[in-house]
Amino acid sequence: xxxxxxxxxxxxxxxxxxxxxxxxxxxxxxxxxxxxxxxxxxxxxxxxxxxxxxxxxxxxxxxxxxxxxxxxxxxxxxxxxxxxxxxxxxxxxxxxxxxxxxxxxxxxxxxxxxxxxxxxxxxxxxxxxxxxxxxxxxxxxxxxxxxxxxxxxxxxxxxxxxxxxxxxxxxxxxxxxxxxxxxxxxxxxxxxxxxxxxxxxxxxxxxxxxxxxxxxxxxxxxxxxxxxxxxxxxxxxxxxxxxxxxxxxxxxxxxxxxxxxxxxxxxxxxxxxxxxxxxxxxxxxxxxxxxxxxxxxxxxxxxxxxxxxxxxxxxxxxxxxxxxxxxxxxxxxxxxxxxxxxxxxxxxxxxxxxxxxxxxxxxxxxxxxxxxxxxxxxxxxxxxxxxxxxxxxxxxxxxxx
Length: 401
Ligand SMILES: *Cc1c(COP(=O)(O)O)cnc(C)c1O
Fold this sequence. Notes:
By secondary structure, this protein is of the alpha/beta class. The chain folds into 2 domains: 150 residues, Aspartate Aminotransferase, domain 1 (Alpha-Beta Complex), CATH 3.90.1150.10; 241 residues, 3-Layer(aba) Sandwich (Aspartate Aminotransferase, domain 2).
């Protein structure tokens, strides 16, 4: 058999992705190796998924142990890893109840359906409007792309689910005006990830909370990218001194094994009564076994405090690079969700930086065409940051030249 190559992708895969040429075959911590044995530093982390790096030995063990015991049951039965994980999520957050899915989009789908159902059951079907924000990203199912605020992702897929309004993020006045008795949910990311690493202001977050209370609307926080330690707390809402009604998690939750979760307060969770929603694989024993272990490693003082310190190193390095090459307008984000917005001169060129980084054996991400995004392992070492950032400096030098 000939070597599996990037060319084969174009031949046998649907053209919805355009992957880079390198095909990684092995990973360990923050390092990856390709088919030729070339080594890379990974600051992309599978788009904020590999929060404990690649093949963390404890996650590998958890997976292997569970693989010898039990894989799947269906929801006709519950299983021990799912119960254990749900209990952890409930004990360490605002939530009373958990629903498991296989991805972030499905967790949001459950959250949006819950909001509609809760409003319909309690206030009638007139109360069905969902408010979300431009540039937001909530997944790729038809409902979740429709709630998401990026029209390029819904184009051609019409007719779309109705009753969804998109407002400017962080605009309190606009929000006050738009909320009404018909609003069933306000949905937002504490830091817009795909939208460019833009943080919700504290006032805005409080206003969303207050307006949801006033209008009996469900406050849904999409923490699929910000959750599970990424911002330096278990969930990003914990920085704000508020609690949502419903929160969605995925990505880092399974550390690379597909799993999503919707967390809810009792009152709202009750809307998803028997038979109203479900998923064949949701709460799968293998996924939950890995997620349990990931939770135990992430939710420690040591891991969480480290994130704040490591962010400082990234921020300092990026500022040094900027002083030398004048490429950024702003370094932003929170914890190890790091955004570097390109200045006027480099608008639209984030992909060039990403490609140049790869040529220097460094994997990074973009968040839209104008923002470079780093979402490394939460366990990245200082030495790895140094090594990765000097590769990044070389990449920047090349793009600027
Ligand atoms: C990645 C992401 C999603 C979608 O998750 P999938 O697992 O790809 O379905 C939804 N919301 C946010 C904020 C995300 O970052």
